[in-house]
């Protein structure tokens, strides 16, 4: 039996940025503490590369993206099904909500930065809201578990990635569990890395300046010549195959110059692209390109793919979190934390 609350918002505190609530009352909201308000602005300010090559892209492709996201990853399902009945689970970066309600004996609240994906969740009667992964609007020690599935690799700086992990830990109770999965640079199919567009080896603080824009190395192939990955062409393909086919990037923290920062293309068919007109604007402004041969608008999504040990290094600076499990599965690095 799912545990329900009379007013879920009594467990939320407003983020510093505007957020939109779906399926929730707006009464009895908490005010953020002084400590929460003093978080570094460079961490909470969204870098331009994320605005243009994550947020704008998912705004444009949300319905098509959602139609490809239905299969549950077995490792995530196993984690959720292992939780105690009645547990409150917070899904940060819930996308179209495919994991919300997976274990019917638990209570779920999802959030995502993308309003279009949250609207899809709300229409499915999930408890959801629009919120930023680096500034979750929940009270401290609220949930029994939190999950972040394929989210952190869209954050363009180490500070923001660490802050997102700190938030996942902050919002769970002592003894609560946190599951994080990210795309790995160590892909099972090495040929896939050649199909993405490598970016600069490192981003400085942190593409916040609108006058700065990411550029590719001169040796990189043109976007028009990047072959579409099989998983994008087959939009309704199984999620496990998808995870094998779409990693992200970044320079390895171990100092071995491993490329980890990439643009990964998403091909939005013309018949879907014209629904909102957003794609025409994106093409006009240079954030997307038309591929008449494939009948699609090609968007580039920013990814920072994680190197082996990178998640553990990010967690090592968090005093109240202990690693209880870590593993590599289907070209993803995964870690389970326990709040101490």
From TrEMBL:
The lineage of its organism: Eukaryota, Viridiplantae, Streptophyta, Embryophyta, Tracheophyta. Residues 90-180 form the Methyltransferase type domain. Pfam families: Methyltransf_11. GO terms for cellular component: cytoplasm; nucleus. GO terms for biological process: tRNA methylation; tRNA wobble uridine modification. Keywords: Methyltransferase, Transferase. Gene3D superfamilies: Vaccinia Virus protein VP39. InterPro entries: AlkB_tRNA_MeTrf/Diox, Methyltransf_11, SAM-dependent_MTases_sf. This is Alkylated DNA repair protein alkB-like protein 8. One of its GO terms (molecular function) is tRNA (5-carboxymethyluridine(34)-5-O)-methyltransferase activity. SUPFAM superfamilies: S-adenosyl-L-methionine-dependent methyltransferases (SSF53335). It comes from the Eukaryota.
